[in-house]
Specification:
Blueprint (H helix, E strand, L loop, with lengths): L5 E10 L2 E10 L2 E7 L8 E4 L5 E4 L1 E6 L12 H10 L2 E6 L11 H11 L6 E4 L1 E2 L8 H6 L5 E4 L13 H13 L3 E5 L3 H6 L8 H7 L2 H18 L2 E5 L7 H9 L4 E5 L1 H5 L21 H12 L5 E2 L31 H11 L4 H16 L15 E11 L18 E11 L2 E2 L20
Parallel strand pairs: 1-4, 6-7, 7-8, 9-10, 10-11, 11-12, 12-13, 13-14
Antiparallel strand pairs: 1-2, 2-3, 5-15, 15-16, 16-17
Helix pairs in contact: 4-7, 11-12
The structure holds zinc ion.
């Protein structure tokens, strides 16, 4: 029997629910042993972390729009996964829309997988979609390996991915229940949106008023009602309005199978700080005010919100309408795959949270939610997806240092705390600036991961 391929000695490692000194051994891409720090353990490669570094499990980002094929000029598998690796994210799940074809049937999934093959720096899995036209055919899509299906109740922004009506939603839930499937929903209600004033022009206040909290509350209520009636597992993506937290907490207390995510931009940015015309801040639902941000943090602290994922949703710089600053015309989406950890950690630390909390929100919980049983923890038997972060080191966001296809970011110049120093995927280094293989990522399927 040969020794480990890699041994990592860490004075500080986030393991399970705690942080402690540890020695982690890796063979064939899997963690084979985790023990109290023991410098006598050796292997083919031995890494001893610096005093200012902490070992974490790789982050799992279950909300990424890669857009390839079909809108590869917006983002692609090579660039997105390189950004992920640089940011300490070792697994991403790709959203079913904005690529063409959208991931609505097994053939489209095969097209996506072919587009991704050989290009990915980290592991990649796929969500499918539920639209009116593929209801009745969700079972084969799940069987083909998607981790669940996503749907909209309001306009998705692209015509090839139309929303479900309330009746359609119920049909989708019934179908998914029969297949033990998971339904992700973009929770904005079309009636509430059309009742709100239209947004055009550079005023952020007007844009905010066009997508009110009531639209999130109404949509969440619709989804919870469908979940109560069918028993299906549902997940609310990118919750922005904290006003929906009480009904989510109540539903969970009632036994409804619901999980909730929010995103770095809702936890870091504030409407009060968004300049008029700053369409690089546009996302849907929108970034809301400071009191709402505080309430989202409270939702994370009390567990009503389970996880933080990026909703990395790029487009070409032209589509962000930065020249006109027109919030009505700009594509909604913020790209933060590479920056999620320092963004969330900077704000979390200021609010008295520790790295254990951040690992729970950004690694453990999303892995569990997606059924990625070998991810999200540093423990024997898990995938050797590991990240080294220097939690007290500072960085200033330099758009030129982002590996995303386009460097448009509302975070340019932001001073953040927490620098990702190394990332390993299945025991192999994938940190982009270390001149290592860039295509080590595997394509994951539901039930095999
Ligand atoms: Zn999204």
């Amino acid at each position: 029997m040969t020794g480990p391929d890699l041994v990592v000695h860490a004075e500080r490692a986030v393991l399970g629910d705690g942080e402690q000194p540890a020695t982690v051994s890796v063979a064939d891409g899997v963690i084979t042993d985790v023990r109290p720090l023991d410098l006598s353990v050796t292997g083919a490669e031995v890494v001893e972390l610096d005093d200012d570094e902490v070992l974490l499990p790789g982050l799992v980002d279950t909300h990424v729009h890669v857009n390839e094929p079909g809108r590869t000029e917006w983002e692609g598998f090579a660039t997105a996964t390189r950004a992920a690796a640089a940011g300490g994210v070792t697994t991403i799940l790709d959203m079913p829309l904005n690529s063409r074809p959208p991931t609505l049937d097994p053939a489209a999934l095969a097209v996506k997988r072919a587009a991704a093959a050989g290009k990915c720096a980290v592991d990649v899995g796929f969500w499918g979609g539920a639209v009116p036209a593929n209801l009745g055919s969700l079972g084969p899509l799940l069987d083909a390996g998607v981790f669940g299906v996503k749907s909209f109740l309001a306009d998705s922004g692209v015509q090839e991915f139309p929303p479900l009506s309330s009746a359609d939603l119920l049909r989708a839930c019934e179908e998914l229940t029969a297949h033990d499937g998971l339904l992700l929903v973009h929770a904005e209600d079309p009636g509430e949106l059309s009742a709100a004033p239209d947004a055009g022009g550079p005023s952020y206040a007007e844009f905010l008023a066009s997508r009110p909290p009531s639209s999130e509350i109404a949509a969440v209520s619709t989804v919870l009602d469908a979940a109560r009636r069918t028993g299906v597992r549902v997940h609310i993506v990118h919750l922005s309005s904290a006003d929906a937290l009480p009904i989510l907490a109540q539903a969970r207390a009632d036994g409804v199978r619901v999980s909730v995510e929010t995103c770095p931009h809702y936890l870091v940015l504030r409407a009060e700080d968004v300049p008029d015309g700053a369409t690089d801040h546009k996302c849907c639902p929108p970034v809301r005010d400071d009191a709402n941000r505080d309430a989202l943090w409270a939702g994370l602290a009390d567990g009503t919100i389970d996880m933080v994922v990026s909703d990395h949703s790029p487009c070409t710089p032209a589509l962000k309408a930065l020249d006109t600053g027109d919030f009505g015309a700009a594509w909604g989406g913020i790209s933060s795959l590479q920056l999620g950890l320092p963004l969330v950690w900077t704000e979390a630390r200021r609010r008295g949270h520790d790295l254990i909390d951040v690992v729970r929100w950004m690694s453990h919980a999303p892995a569990g939610f997606a059924g990625l049983t070998t991810k999200g923890a540093v423990r024997a038997g898990a995938a050797a997806d590991l990240v080294v972060v220097a939690p007290d080191a500072e960085m200033v966001v330099d758009p030129a240092a982002l590996h995303h296809r386009h460097a448009v970011t509302p975070y340019a110049g932001a001073r953040l705390t927490g620098v990702v120093r190394r990332t390993w995927l299945a025991g192999a280094p994938v940190t982009p600036d270390r001149a290592v293989p860039q295509a080590a990522g595997r394509l994951l399927s539901r039930g095999e991961a």
